[in-house]
Amino acid sequence: MKRSMIKELINTPTINETVTVKGWVRTKRGNKAVSFIAINDGSSIHNIQVVADLEKFSSSLISSITTGAAIGVTGLLVTSQGAGQSVEVQAQEIEVYGTCDPNTYPLQKKGHSLEFLREIAYLRPRTNTFGAILRIRHNMAFAIHNFFHQKGYYYIHTPIITSSDAEGAGQMFRVTTLDLEKLPKNKEGNVDYKKDFFGKPTSLTVSGQLEGELAALALGGIYTFGPTFRAENSNTPRHLAEFWMIEPEVAFFDINDNMDLAEEFTKYCVQWALDHCRDDLNFLAEHYDKELISRLEFVLAHNYERITYTQGIEILETAIKEGKKFEFPVYWGADLSSEHERYLVEQHFQKPVIMTDYPKEIKAFYMKQNEDGKTVRGMDILFPFIGEIIGGSEREADYEKLLSHATKMGIPEKDIWWYLDTRRYGTVPHAGFGLGFERLLLFVTGMSNIRDVIPFPRTPNNAEF
Prior knowledge:
By secondary structure, this protein is an alpha+beta fold. The chain is built from 13 helices and 16 strands. Helix 4 (128-150) crosses helix 6, helix 4 (128-150) crosses helix 13 and helix 6 (255-276) runs antiparallel to helix 8 (292-301).
């Protein structure tokens, strides 16, 4: 028979019809007459109970069905007589696809810490927690594509291997085919990259923004959604060496258009999660974060407060004068930390905040400079629980200003000449932003460690699986 997904059988049950389900055993219990087997196929947070009359099946078959085993069951779908489930399957045929040794299988029926599950990341998708997280991750990716597609923006694939540092930070993973034990040298004694695969130094991308701008200046509105890499030695619950970024870029947009788009976009994603992932969200709220659902609804219930960086600093300084303690200092020119951002969102305004007009010294070279000569038209969206979730700006459209700022930040003209040329050939106002996908998932799932919202985390000293 054609396989039925457990999600379908629970949500739209066809009572008293024969069905076939296939999945992995979560638990098995029973008595001398009947065995109750809970199986899960990954389509839902919920298991389906299989009732096996022991007179119909051999003892060797039943004994081979242990936690973790993969089985297929054909039987009658009936209304459950017991508590805990609405329907169950009365087994007529059972096939064991793969047994599972209960003495070595690490996911027995007991609580497992998230730290332990990271050590067995190849198995953790079989747990309720990570099944829920991965289904939400899929839904958020789908929502992102759906949002931009409906707006008429085009999905652009930007390069993963690049010779430019979009952020000017230098924290990039080098890509090379040279023999690291016998590096070729030039006359000056430096590595001769002319003998490398690309004939020049190349790295994994830290952002698709610069290439995205090129596409926006031809197609009007685009977005990228792909992996990015930062060789930042930060072993914290908020940093990954490999993560995914969403980066829209739109021609003829200014900073206000950009803020409008970012607010609409984040609200769309949160609403999508509430509409399409409710069972998984309820599970995570019950087991990890009691305030999860209310925090998601909180974002939807408010228009985001829009303030300048200077206003934000003034609010924080007033809070300090009134006795508020922060771990990190507050002063004009400081790069605000998460504790500052969360104070503004959670305590002062009690709504999401969009902060604009940052000091140019703490922002990237491509941000448009304001007329005051001190600030740029950057904007960050600050959320409860997480702080900054989006960073963006109106881009500098003036060739001379862009070149000057890049030079001051140590970015060689020879590395970005092609980017600068867009300001020479039909330049227009344009703007965009970047959203770290895993940061969004931290907020939507309520998880506290970014390693738990990506299937296989890459962090300092960790590249397993």
